[in-house]
């Protein structure tokens, strides 16, 4: 396992604004993937009053080798019916006009959590009465490939729907043991099939042992499945018990992948070591709509 981080992955020190954002989220009793996943950008994003809300609790029913979110281990999980309203209230308090919402995977639920996503979007739409510029980005699980579940989410009217491929096909059995590469690709194609106006987005982590050709092939797969936006970032193991970092990818390599992705036709690309799927999400969205 590689222990020492290169200089380009140094984290920012929290300032007063970052601490204020933490206080708002704590007071609202809301989870964020920023905290649960130990995101390296947390202090910078919180300092800009940006956060990615994580709904459906803080415990996942899957056991991906890269992820720091708590695992259920079969214990019963519930749904917080007041969560959508608290997210809407916190968004207003933080002054957000671009709200990003993700979730743990909830295979234990009859709809895999699709209804809760829709309720969150509905609650945020109500906030548009005060701020008509609010845009909503969702980062969704695969819903086990069930189209009717995805339709529930899409019908609620988000502006962007992301579903992360995370890694190359060969590494799925090691990294995403309970997921399926083809199902994830079909989620993105179905987004565009059912709601062509919605922007489809995905993300890849690099440094897991993938090859250059595998990354390029994966980007081609995403374009063939009508993915509009792509983000690429460096994988960092949250703890020593997670899948180890195989390589730190040089910034120049990320620049190279961005050039290739744009040549393939991705409408917006963000590629750098510290990039995560929802990192600077608003900027990615603005680039696309002004392209």
Topology:
Blueprint: H1 16-28, H2 33-36, H3 42-47, E1 52-55, E2 59-60, E3 70-71, H4 83-94, E4 98-103, H5 114-126, E5 135-139, H6 147-155, E6 160-162, H7 172-175, H8 181-194, E7 199-206, H9 212-224, E8 229-234, H10 251-264, E9 268-271, H11 281-289
Parallel strand pairs: 1-4, 2-3, 4-5, 5-6, 6-7, 7-8, 8-9
Structural write-up:
- The protein has one domain (9-289): TIM Barrel, CATH 3.20.20.70.
- 38% of the residues lie in helices and 14% in strands.
- The protein has eleven helices and nine strands.
- α9 links the parallel β7 (199-206) and β8 (229-234).
- The chain starts with 15 loop residues before the first helix and ends with a helix.
Strand segment tally: 9
Distance between the termini: 41 Å
CATH superfamily: Aldolase class I
Q: What is the domain total for the residues?
A: 1
Q: Detail the poorly predicted runs.
A: none
What is the CATH fold-level name?
TIM Barrel
Shape: globular
CATH architecture: Alpha-Beta Barrel
How much of the polypeptide forms β-strand, as a percent range? Answer: 5-15%
Q: What does the largest sheet look like?
A: 7 strands, parallel
Radius of gyration: 18 Å
Helix content: 25-40%
**SSE topology string:** HHHEEEHEHEHEHHEHEHEH
SS summary, helix count: 11
What is the level 1 CATH name? Alpha Beta
Mean residue pLDDT: 90
Structural class: alpha/beta
For the largest beta sheet, what order do the strands appear in spatially?
1-4-5-6-7-8-9
